[in-house]
Amino acid sequence: MPAPIAFLDLSICPPVLATIILKKSRRSVRVSPYFTGARGYCRIISAPPVRGVTGITDGGNMRSPYLTAFAILSLCLAAAPGAGAYDWKAGTSLNYDTGKYGTGTRTDSIYIPLTLTRYYTGGQVSLTVPWLRQSSSGAVTRVGGSPVRASRNVEGASGAVSGAESGLGDVLLRGTYAIKEESLHRFDLAFAGSLKFPTANEKKGLGTGEIDQGAGLEFAKEMSGSWTLLIDGYYTIIGDPEGVDYDNQVTLDIGFYRELREDLSVTALYVTRSALVSGNSDQREATGTLVRTMPDGDQFSAGLLLGLSEGSPQLGLSVGFARRF
Fold first, then answer.
1. Distances in whole angstroms, Cα of residue 244 to Cα of each of 37, 239, 282, 292
2. What is the pLDDT of residues 77-123, one digit of tens each?
3. CATH of domain 87-324
4. Element (H or E) spanning 200, and its range?
5. How far apart are CA 191 and CA 176, in angstroms?
6. What is the largest CA-CA distance in the chain?
7. Can you tell me the distance from the alpha carbon of 124 to that of 10, in angstroms, rounded to the nearest whole number?
8. Is the pTM here over 0.90, yes or no?
9. Helix (H) or strand (E) holding 264
């Protein structure tokens, strides 16, 4: 059997979104379902090419922008788990970022995402709907929820605006599936897939107005005691607005997770992201997140981001709350 190209599950896919995906998908996908206990999965084995399209993209441009979502939907429809086989978590956070991102103008942004996550044995899927307020000249956009510089010069930026704008941000769909789990040595390797829907108003400078889709690997290894090494890598195909040619983005991060006590943990990461426009500085930043878990399972978090390059925000602060049910 050929190697699978995707392992994702989305039984929370909204009916309206599902209809859009089915209507706009122009690629055929061969799906191979299988079951493990109460869970159902599907292997996306292949996506036969159509005329003028090779692989998932053609030269990095989205000729079939809904392929990733179609694959996710196929998994959802093939085998949804029964009641009691999963957990849910709803969470939100208040995120503030400020910086010049290598331009002469400071951009301040407030990002408030509402995320619904469904957990399965060996995987999870989440849907994030954010609200965004941003004061900039259109030189900064968001990829995967993180602010990035989107133009070489402000005058040439797509959707350039002045002053502050606010509204719905880009909706983000994300799923992970455990490729390998070893309880004895606490070694975990997971595949991650993401899809950004262009729901933000590009005329206000809140988004690019195009779909982004990405995939990556997430690695975790318990080193000693309460220390866990974290290494992640992602590749995101960036949709190009008319008249703009963005580079696809590579994201790498390395850090650790440590349980300070039973109800308190900290995660620290060094993150680097390649620039969307050739000639701009890559993003490099250090982040730290402290999480307090209450007896009833509710979680409170606080985070700090420090920019280490011109392409990054200089400072980021966040507070959040999440509840599982």
1. 48, 9, 18, 43
2. 433 454 454 589 999 999 999 999 988 889 999 999 999 999 988 89
3. 2.40.160.40
4. none
5. 5
6. 57
7. 9
8. no
9. strand 264-273
